[in-house]
């Protein structure tokens, strides 16, 4: 049988090294920080990044010829899940969103000159980036409706529009900006948009505010773009390819989110069990009560499903197969499971879980974002249904739409 859920010895060694580094170096360093001391925070982060480079744990998702570890998506799953045991872990290894997805995008779509100017600093960790697609006036789940306009003026483009929830914008040295360039293409068509590389700061790029969310102001900016000029050489991936580029970027990026969410869900389940084993009430430990056991059992089963779905979708990406349905399923299911498992952990902790004395409250606030980031639940459900119906119409069976597995 070709099915094997064990890691090769060399990859198991990498997993152990990442775990040891995150739990033995990163977590203690973050715990020692003084609250509110931003200078110390930044010094600590950059020191940890230098240690990650020295340990050979830098850029796990990038090819070795570009300074990375050269891991496939299956191997990346175990690195991301270990790194995300602490929120800062992926950033320390330089495999955090949105830079991770932008690195993949630049590697695949950029010219040699663009790679040297934009990709190389991201890989070195000397710059950060953002991806500017979502707009307040139209549904973020349908990028064919984008209204930001780019009009060619000689060897330049003039861009006007409105973006929001642009993560990392205030820290970014450049943006990958999606704008409509083909006015004659009917609305809803996929060939109307083009991607541009925009150096920041820029007089035409006006950062209005950080949008306040459930978990505070954490870098999701609203941007007004007014007569922003970029040269024709700033086009990324060719004119009219903005939709294709965006979908190329979002596929693996969705799965990378799932890898990190699995880690958060597992942390919540660990906390749930630990609490149940220590809390005594009404004649017995919580762990001995059937109602609590059901919460633990449901969470364990869901986490098992999450891990299998992510590993299978990652294996399809590594094999070069069509992974769209599997990634959609994983993204939808893992995001929902993350919310449910953390919610159960809060319930088992009672008022303590609702307080900020444990990380659960913050984890729950961040988890709610997962159900619409990189495609809302309902959009993924729609696409999954469409592909399932199409599979049956083409073959008389839905098998290919449920993983194409030998069962």
Quick structural gist:
This protein is an alpha+beta fold and 407 residues long. The chain has helices at residues 9-31, 38-54, 73-83, 89-92, 99-109, 112-124, 242-278, 290-318, 324-349, 351-354, 360-369, 377-395, and strands spanning 129-132, 149-153, 156-167, 174-180, 193-199, 205-210, 220-231, 235-236, 280-281, 284-285. Helices cover 50% and strands 14% of the residues.
Strand-helix topology:
Layout: H1 9-31, H2 38-54, H3 73-83, H4 89-92, H5 99-109, H6 112-124, E1 129-132, E2 149-153, E3 156-167, E4 174-180, E5 193-199, E6 205-210, E7 220-231, E8 235-236, H7 242-278, E9 280-281, E10 284-285, H8 290-318, H9 324-349, H10 351-354, H11 360-369, H12 377-395
Parallel strand pairs: 1-4
Antiparallel strand pairs: 2-3, 3-7, 4-5, 5-8, 6-7, 9-10
Helix pairs in contact: 1-2, 1-3, 3-7, 5-6, 5-7, 7-8, 7-9, 8-9, 9-11, 9-12
Protein described:
By secondary structure, the chain is an alpha+beta fold. Helix content is 50%, strand content 14%. The chain contains twelve helices and ten strands. Helix 1 runs parallel beside helix 3 (73-83), helix 7 (242-278) packs antiparallel against helix 8 (290-318) and helix 7 packs parallel to helix 9.
